[in-house]
Fold this sequence. Notes:
InterPro entries: IsoCit/isopropylmalate_DH_CS, IsoPropMal-DH-like_dom. By secondary structure, this protein is of the alpha/beta class. About 40% of the residues lie in helices and about 20% in strands. The protein contains eleven helices and twelve strands. The protein has helices at about 15-35, 45-55, 60-70, 85-95, 150-165, 185-195, 210-220, 230-240, 280-295, 295-315, 325-340, and strands at about 5-10, 35-40, 70-75, 100-105, 120-125, 135-140, 140-145, 170-175, 205-210, 225-230, 255, 260-265. The chain has a ten-stranded mixed beta sheet with strand order 2-1-3-12-11-4-5-10-8-9, with helices on both faces. A hairpin with a 2-residue loop joins strand 6 and strand 7 (about 140-145). It is globular and about 55 Å long. The mean pLDDT is about 95. It binds nicotinamide-adenine-dinucleotide. The site of nicotinamide-adenine-dinucleotide has 21 residues, from loops.
Amino acid sequence: MAKTHKITLIPGDGIGPEVSGAVVKIVEAAGAATGIGFEWHRYAAGAEAFETTREYIPKALYDSIEENRVALKGPVTTPIGGGFASINVTLRKKFELFANFRPVKSLPGLKTRYPDIDLIIVRENMEDLYAGLEHEVVPGVVQALKIITEKGSTRISQFAFDYARKHNRKKVHAIHKANIMKLSDGLFLRCARKVAEEFPEVAYAEHIVDNTCMQLVMNPYQYDILLTENLYGDILSDLCSAFVGGLGLVPGANLGKECAIFEAVHGSAPDIAGKDMANPTALLQSAVLMLHHIDESATANRIQTALEQVYREGKTLTKDVGGTSGTKAFADAVLQAMEMPQ
Ligand code: NAD
């Protein structure tokens, strides 16, 4: 009997249902062609979940991730300047998903500002200003606490260097602002330096974050792995996505010791939601990362090969990357490419 994987699925809101619908179809088809099955355990999160369960993250969703240990997640809208806490940040903290892994890689055939980009952002995922510790000191004065710990900085550095060693990557740049935040970013750097010493075969360098933005735009090829705290990594991810065609393309993985949640870098894109315009590539490539994570590389490769074929042909692309096709037509093109002999 075919092996069946139980995956928690959070379709999300905005463009979430459209892109996750397309991705589930493609993953199912790739699974069927490579002899594996999927059981999707679907849950709403955020405002949508609150309407029916009075909880932003229903307990059943927590239980499902705990049981399945793997989730595929669409974007969830977070209210700005008030309202409930970010679902993403809450899930990352709850399941101790300390590493945010974001590969930024050019797709074949797609004309972008910079060809042949291949860099990785390794972002600390639980600390920094994202700890969400804010309070009003007195009316008109608000304080947000930036939390950086030796434990958090060391384990994310270890993750980046372990990945570099395992995948033969040449260089890790720690990105910081320790000239100003001497204690917090200073600690982050000290931890990165200490870990770097254990990996003499991987080159190590440090760049200040504002300079990094300029350096990236001038010459992104000088970077291989960017090791960052939480906030800098978030900002640099969107910047780097522009090298390869934008937010519609870049996947991500939130990894911990027990569980993993795979999601695109992009958000819920309310400006294009419900219009059949969203590019499902970023979530599809997140699903490819997920399939590698659960040791189903044959299924992952089948999808990646078909996806690259569609980009190489360039006939059925979404608007964000210069095409004229919709989400559904793009997904159908990937499904069709998968049916071709590979
Ligand atoms: P966004 O990523 O949703 O959109 C930024 C721009 O990129 C928009 O112009 C959008 O149309 C475009 N875009 C994004 N994804 C695309 C895709 N797949 N195909 C084509 N174009 C795409 O960022 P935002 O507008 O700053 O945020 C909107 C909401 O999403 C906010 O509530 C934010 O909190 C939330 N958000 C959620 C996540 C997550 O769930 N992981 C991540 C980031 C932002």
